[in-house]
Amino acid sequence: MSSETFSYKGISAGKYIEGEIEAINQEEASFKLKEEKVIITNLTKVKKKKAEKAKKKGGGFSFGKKAVKPEDVMIFSKQFATMVKAGLPILNVLKMLRDQIEHPTMKEIIEDVRKNLEGGITLSTCFAKYPKIFDSVYINLIKAGEASGKLDTFLLKLVESLEKREKVKKKINKQASKTLTDTNQIQQTKILKDGDDFTINWQSDNIKLFIWDANQEDGDKIQLIINGNIILNNFETKNKRKKVKYRLVDGENTIEIKATNLGNSPPNTGRMELVDSKTKYPIITQLELGKSAIIKIVK
Questions:
Q1: To 10 degrees, the CA torsion angle through 110, 111, 116, 118?
Q2: Which of 80, 85, 144, 209 has the smallest count of CB within 10 Å of its CB?
Q3: Over the stretch 99-115, which tens digit does the pLDDT of each residue have?
Q4: What DSSP designation does 21 have?
């Protein structure tokens, strides 16, 4: 899932601030800013053209090179934090990680950070050259470590932040995937006329059924019979959906819809939706007076 750029305004440490942040959606952008102790006053998605223009200004290790994924940043950050915590000099740590990490783009970035750090630039500024790889939360935690003299502590906090963010991202992706799956489980509408029958293989123990008028309310009335039991008798369908729940038996169950009048605009036309767990079966009935359509539910 590709990231988007969001423009924000807020209050941090008693001061009004503004800027841009990258996230897969507004929820993650908000999560990142709250992590950075920003009280958000405005958060909006930046239009693509504007975002692309901004991206071209810096942080460019993506075009023509292997993309750096959040997992790659996580692996590097964990190793970096562990080695700095162990008391190893930062320049030596960066050199070792450059040699250990196989990802070609990360190798180049680490070496560039090492050279700049060796040249007297602060660590946070070295990482800030790559905003598409190390976002503002990442940079600000390193700055806090530099300012406090406890870089090792803040690097461990940084790893915790990345892990927490990854959990949130997975949760969001799972929800998005679930929504997509649910949408794909709406079946094609079936039209049933006099004498038609339709068989559905059913998964759950119960059936949830909705009945309403297909077009304008014109006085259409129906009889609904399930397994020989009259559930609705001479029921006038309206635009408002009527909900019916019924416990099914093992094997074959029969639903009969019978037209008890023709309303003001023949034929008797109605709509139904049968719900099996997450799968929906939309049905339209078009019946003459006294005629029926049959739906067989096999459980």
A1: 110
A2: 85
A3: 999 899 999 999 999 99
A4: E
Determine the Cα–Cα distance for residues 264 and 216; give it in Å rounded to an integer.
10
Tell me how far CA of residue 194 lies from CA of 28, 37, 87, 209, in angstroms: 53, 66, 83, 20
Structural contact between residues 148 and 132, judged by C-beta atoms closer than 8 angstroms: no
Cα–Cα distance, 94 to 198 (Å, whole number): 68
- Across the chain, which distance is largest between two alpha carbons, in Å? 91
CA-closest candidate to residue 215, choices 294, 292, 286: 286
Strands (E), the chain: 4-12, 15-23, 39-45, 190-193, 197-201, 206-213, 221-226, 229-236, 242-247, 252-259, 268-276, 279-287, 292-298
At 176, the pLDDT band (50, 70, 90 cuts) reads low
Residue 58, pLDDT score: 43
CA angle 239, 248, 211 (to 5 degrees): 5
Kindly provide the b/e burial profile for residues 92-110, where b requires at least 16 CB atoms within 10 angstroms of the residue's own CB. ebbeebbeebebebbeebb
Closest by CA to 208, choosing from 255, 240, 260, 269, is 255
The one-letter amino acid code at 244 reads V
Place of tokens 């406090």: 148
d(CA 200, CA 255) in angstroms, rounded, equals: 11
Question: Residue 64: phi, psi to the nearest 5?
Answer: 75, 5
